[in-house]
Structure formats: structure tokens, C-alpha cells
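Need a sequence for this fold. Nothing fancy.
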């Protein structure tokens, strides 16, 4: 029997052929992940760009006939390739693209991580999620100097504080329908929270789309400083935690768009003189993607765009930040010419 094809223009709709579906429909990982879990979000949201989430590390192997073409399509990374990581700030040559501070409002680099030996968030039980939270918070509480901070559980946060942290770009939003359909919002807000240092230049989101989103951010365009802080934090955390990782795909994440470096390096840049099409064209030429002022699925406000590396797999962390610096410099020159 043939299955109905998912609707819309998602990578899921493109790559879940009846043949792939037939091959994968009875497979189940050791943690109990089935094809139905993987494709639930894309089926419920036909406007998905991608439409799939892995329930655990093994999903990427067992459901490779679906994930591999999606990964190749999104990252330009074929099954024969091996991901390489480079988090050494000494290798980074990313001069500040806006030394006078006229265009770039702020710079943020985040990576996603999940703990090895647990399923990912869509499959995690309430109890396991609490263990993940306790494990991560214990590791974070051991950090010192600039990285030292406090953990704020979402369940104990008042709604005004929560809304302010979201509006100020420090905290994840609630109720994402793509995550909801994937099962990633189960038991919300239990075991979710935010860790941050005093200056909010180092932050960690706990148990959102991935178990950890590790963030370094600050006003201005000093990409070197933001990257160096992130690299230092990752070095410290790798000594305390073991993250899910594969030889081929690098760091493993819920969504295949985040595999590899699991890194999104972005600037918030003010470009009121350029049209959306002009910005998209320059971004595309530099391998960058454009989001709105409040992140994914938001619009640009006051001419401020979020510009970041599109590819996260098959490119090193250092190279992704270098490309962001080059693309931001190109956007700034076009903006300067437009005025
Ligand atoms: P993610 O970065 O985790 O993929 P989002 O695109 O939703 O997810 O972004 C999360 C938050 O980070 C949003 O509030 C977004 O505006 C904020 N953000 C992203 N880049 C920057 C930046 N360069 N400066 C300040 N805030 C940023
Ligand atoms: N699942 C959503 C879609 O397919 C989001 C994909 C990328 N974003 C993410 N936060 N993982 O459109």
C-alpha cells in the first residue's frame, strides 16, 4: 500500500518518498523512536522548511534513508563526508566588521548540545528531563570567573521577568508549534530554565529544542571576543559533561539543520537602506541566512536583521564565524553605498 505524501515545500515532503516510507515504517531505535516521531512536526505543519526531528542519536543512523538526503540538501554534505570541528580562537581571523559601531547592534554565537546516553528532548521522559537539568545545572554551577552565574528555572519565573528576558533576546520563546508537534514541549515548563552570568554575556538554555543551547553574546561586532568566550565555556563544559556526537555528523541535535558545529553565529545589523531582496542576495552569496529581529519566524523591526551562517555541518566553527564577518562587512558596504 502507498502512503499519502506530506504536503507543502518542506525537505520532508521532498524526501519522504513512498519507497523510503515503506523501508523505514517498522524501524524502531533502542529508545523507541519510530518514523512517526521523526516526521510528526512536518506532517502537522505543512509550512515547515525542514519538518523532521531526531528523537535520539541512533535516529540519524536508523532513519538515514530519510535524514541523509535532507542533510545533503540543507548543508550540501553528502554521506561520504566527515565533519571536522575547530573551536580554537587562535585560528580565527574575523576582524570586527563595524569598528565604529554604526551598524551592528549585537553579536551572538550559540551552539546546541545534547547529553550522550539520553534520548533527545522529543522522547525524554519527565524524570529523565529532570536528571538532564540537574546534571547540566551542576556542571554550570562549577564555572568560575566571567562564566560564573545562576540558574533560573522557568517554573519559578514570574511572567513579567520571562517576557522581558524574551524581548531582550536572552530567553527562548514559549509555544513554538514546530517543537510542540515534535513532542519537544511535553511537560512544559518542567525542567526548563535559563542560566546566565551577571552581565548576560554567557547564557545556557536548558531543555528547549536541545538539552543545552550554550550562548555567548554582547553588544557590538567583536566576533573574536564572543567566539573566544564561547570556546572557553565549551572547553570547561566538555570537562564536566559528555555530549552526543558522531564521527560523521559532529555534534548531534534534535533538528538536522543544527548538526555538526551545532553553531549559529549571528549579528543583529541595522540595514534600513537595503531592500529585503538585496539583503537576501548578499547573504546568499556569503552562505548566510536572514531572520527577523526576534529570531526564527519573526519579522525585521526598524531595519534590524539577524544574519547568521546557514550551514552548520561540513564547515568548522572558525570558518562559519569568518564567513559571518565577511558577509557582514559586505552588507555594511552595500548599506553605506545605499545612503
Ligand atoms: P536560535 O538562535 O537558538 O537558533 P532564534 O533564532 O529563535 O534561535 O534566536 C533566539 C534569540 O536570540 C532571539 O531572541 C533572537 O532575537 C536572539 N538573537 C539572535 N542573534 C542575536 C544577536 N546577534 N544579538 C542579539 N540577539 C540575538
Ligand atoms: N521544524 C521547523 C521547520 O521545519 C524549524 C526548522 C529549523 N529551525 C529549528 N529551530 N530547528 O521549519
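Here you go.
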Amino acid at each position: 500500500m502507498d502512503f499519502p505524501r506530506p504536503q507543502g515545500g518542506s525537505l520532508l515532503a521532498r524526501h519522504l518518498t513512498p519507497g523510503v516510507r515503506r523501508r523505514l515504517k517498522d524501524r524502531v531505535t533502542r529508545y523507541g523512536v519510530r518514523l512517526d516521531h521523526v516526521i510528526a512536526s512536518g506532517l502537522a505543519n505543512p509550512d515547515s522548511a525542514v519538518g523532521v526531528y531526531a528523537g535520539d542519536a541512533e535516529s540519524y543512523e536508523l532513519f538515514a534513508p530519510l535524514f541523509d538526503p535532507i542533510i545533503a540538501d540543507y548543508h550540501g554534505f553528502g554521506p561520504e563526508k566527515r565533519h571536522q570541528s575547530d573551536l580554537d580562537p587562535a585560528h580565527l581571523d574575523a576582524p570586527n566588521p563595524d569598528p565604529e559601531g554604526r551598524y551592528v547592534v549585537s553579536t551572538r554565537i550559540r551552539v546546541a548540545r545534547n547529553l550522550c546516553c539520553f534520548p533527545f528532548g522529543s522522547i525524554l521522559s519527565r524524570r529523565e528531563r529532570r536528571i538532564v537539568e540537574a546534571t547540566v545545572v551542576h556542571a554550570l554551577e562549577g564555572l568560575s570567573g566571567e562564566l560564573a552565574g545562576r540558574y533560573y528555572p522557568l517554573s519559578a519565573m514570574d511572567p513579567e521577568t520571562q517576557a522581558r528576558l524574551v524581548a531582550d533576546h536572552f530567553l527562548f520563546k514559549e509555544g513554538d508549534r514546530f517543537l510542540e508537534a515534535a513532542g519537544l514541549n511535553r511537560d512544559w515548563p518542567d525542567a526548563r530554565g535559563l542560566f546566565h552570568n551577571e552581565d548576560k554575556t554567557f547564557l545556557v538554555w536548558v531543555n528547549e529544542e536541545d538539552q543545552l543551547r550554550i550562548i555567548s553574546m554582547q553588544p557590538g561586532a567583536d566576533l573574536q571576543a564572543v567566539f573566544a568566550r564561547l570556546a572557553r565555556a565549551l572547553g570547561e563544559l566538555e570537562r564536566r559533561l559528555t555530549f552526543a556526537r558522531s564521527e560523521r555528523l559532529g555534534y548531534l541535535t534534535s533538528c538536522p539543520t543544527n548538526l555538526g558545529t551545532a553553531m549559529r553565529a549571528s549579528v543583529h545589523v541595522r540595514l534600513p537602506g537595503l531592500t529585503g531582496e538585496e539583503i537576501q542576495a548578499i547573504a546568499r552569496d556569503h552562505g548566510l541566512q536572514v531572520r527577523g529581529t526576534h529570531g526564527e519566524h519573526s519579522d525585521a523591526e526598524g531595519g534590524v536583521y539577524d544574519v547568521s551562517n546557514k550551514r552548520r555541518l561540513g564547515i568548522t566553527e572558525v570558518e562559519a564565524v569568518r564567513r559571518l564577518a565577511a558577509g557582514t562587512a559586505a552588507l555594511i558596504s552595500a548599506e553605506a553605498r545605499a545612503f
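For context: DSSP finds eleven helices and ten strands in the chain.
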